[in-house]
Design a protein that fits this description.
By secondary structure, this protein is α/β, with parallel strands linked by helices. It has helices spanning 13-24, 31-41, 44-54, 61-72, 90-102, 117-131, 138-161, 174-187; strands at residues 2-6, 28-30, 81-84, 109-114, 165-169.
């Protein structure tokens, strides 16, 4: 089973990915973690990604899809994957579809964690107080949210046209959201 989790920064994708991973016994792929791991291991794609990241540029779709291809070929991914925020553009969505099709697979569901901006800002402010993350600065978060909304709206429509998009109201206690996720997957036939 292959599941893609989408949502703005602070929507709870990582938290829910961990819970799904435990419940379904599937690995979780998050773009940032995959890129950092490829850089750490010094793979050819990791070396390309490192050069781009150190220059302050965004990593290209080709590099992201190359890292995902490498991970999909790993034995741990044979039964499916939980993709945590991996797809952010239509070319990435198309590439992901191709990579899965080459392996005789498809995305079973795309779960969109729907959270109002005010809630996201509150969550990130709390996280900033706990973790002290520099990228959780309010001005940086506002820019990330705007960029996310601009880039992601077309991707959500793309998945909706294919009948794989499931919207999850992602406000409330973590366990309640997890219950909504499990219910949505069951109703979606995943």
């Amino acid at each position: 089973m292959d599941i893609l989790l989408m949502g703005p920064p602070g929507a709870g994708k990582g938290t829910q990915a961990t819970l799904l991973c435990d419940a379904l016994g599937l690995p979780t792929f998050a773009t940032g973690n995959l890129l950092r791991d490829a850089v750490r291991r010094g793979t050819p794609l990791g070396q390309q990604a490192k050069a781009v990241m150190e220059s302050g540029q965004l990593v290209s779709d080709d590099i992201i899809l190359g890292v995902i291809r490498d991970e999909l070929d790993a034995p741990a991914a044979a039964n499916g994957v939980i993709f945590d925020g991996v797809v952010r553009t239509i070319p990435q969505a198309e590439g992901m579809e191709r990579l899965l099709a080459e392996r005789g697979r498809r995305l079973n569901a795309v779960l969109f964690f729907d959270v109002p901006d005010a809630e996201i800002l509150g969550r990130i402010e709390r996280r900033r107080g706990i973790e002290g993350r520099a990228d959780d600065d309010p001005a940086a978060v506002a820019i990330r949210l705007q960029s996310y909304r601009e880039q992601t709206a077309p991707v959500l429509a793309w998945y909706e046209q294919r009948g794989t998009l499931v919207r999850i109201p992602a406000v409330g206690p973590v366990d309640d959201i997890a219950t909504r996720v499990r219910r949505a997957l069951a109703e979606h036939g995943s």
